[in-house]
Amino acid sequence: MKNFNDSHLEVKKFFSGTFETHPYEVGWADEAIFFVMVEKIKDDPTFTAQVQLSQDGVHWASDGSNPVALKGLGLHVIKVQPNFGNYLRLAVNITGGEMFLNLHISCKG
């Protein structure tokens, strides 16, 4: 039987500019997906994110995928490539406004 865990990384507040989510330890997991719930927007923002990996939760590198751009309200998914190592986070840039976000990571393994 596989294990499953869904955790909040950033919870229900307005974001703009550049930030990184809280890191999450995922060394036990086979799969990981970020869920980005955009509940409110101010102006016309664009959310751009890059998955980052770390072996120790301190030093970070891009996973090599293309950044993902999201617009609009609702639930958006950012799939993580396989073989992601011990820790994951998103490096985010929001331009053109603000987004009220609820960010989760879901893992199973």
Structure, described:
The chain is built from no helices and 7 strands. The chain is 0% helix and 70% strand. The termini are close together. It has 109 residues and is mainly β. The mean pLDDT is 96. The chain has one domain (4-108): Jelly Rolls, CATH 2.60.120.380. Strands 1, 2, 3, 4, 5, 6 and 7 form a 7-stranded antiparallel beta sheet that branches.
How would you summarize this macromolecular structure in one to three sentences?
By secondary structure, the chain is mainly β. It has no helices and 7 strands. The chain has one domain (4-108): Jelly Rolls (Sandwich), CATH 2.60.120.380.
Low-confidence stretches: none
Q: What amount of the residues lies in strands?
A: over 45%
Could you say what the CATH topology is called? Jelly Rolls
Tally of extended strands?
Answer: 7
Domain count: the total is 1
**According to CATH, what is the class?**
Mainly Beta
Please give the CATH architecture. Sandwich
